[in-house]
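Table 4 source record.
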Amino acid sequence: MKLAILSRNPEIYSTSRLVAAALKRGHDVHVVNHLHCYMNIGPDAPSIGQSGTDLTGFDAVLPRIGVSATFYGTAVVRQFESMGTYAVNGSMAITMSRDKLRSLQLLSRAGVALPVTGFAHSTHSIDELIDMVGGAPLIVKLLKGTQGKGVILAETRKAAESTIEAFRHLRTRFLVQEYFAECKGSDLRCFVVGGHVIAAIVRQGLPDEYRSNLHRGGLATLAILSPEERSLALRAVAAVGLNVAGVDILRTNRGPVVIEVNSSPGLQGIEKVTGLDVAGCIVEHIEEKVGDARFAREVVS
């Protein structure tokens, strides 16, 4: 199998592990910087290239696209899709997962348990927004934040009003969500590959830190999921349309709720805590999908 991994840095843990896993299984793997790609979008022979090299002929493409490169990165994925290349996570699914508002609406439509979330355009709606999520303390979350950045805990109503007014003044889009004090800065990260939850960890933030992200110094331990949590993670991924994803879940007093579905989840924390070859599981999923497509073409011919 000829595999392209879309990544801006071949040295980071997740990309290097995926390369190693693909090579171990005998595949021809290439790391492609999606921001350096250029595309021919003509109807006769759509193509894609990088530094004078033709990038057609790949069996599969594995996107590892950062939030800041979502627009161009998904355009590159779409180009591969238009050439018949299997994309592990499709361009539309990545786009939907990166749009926090849209992804929450998709999850809500699918009946996935979520925090009560408010969104409004008008500055006249501040009181209604705060009351909608149960008052302060509450979470104010930028629509384009990642790794815990752009997430603010407003502990009082006055702090919530001031934060919302400031974001409105800056013309920044944001959500407000109810805050679950009982979680005490911890959440679950469930790793889903090909419709299966293959691993899960509990992430615990530092003392007095309401965000559990490992990039912010949080700690991780092995998680034992309940059937409800496992089902919730799978339903969330299906609603957004991803094949490989990290699902973040809070264990609240009213049961588990999904706070985010991540289309490019990091491998380092989950592999080191669980000891599982997550990269190998992803490559195995690609093998199954590409193999299925080849078999279907052989039958038709």
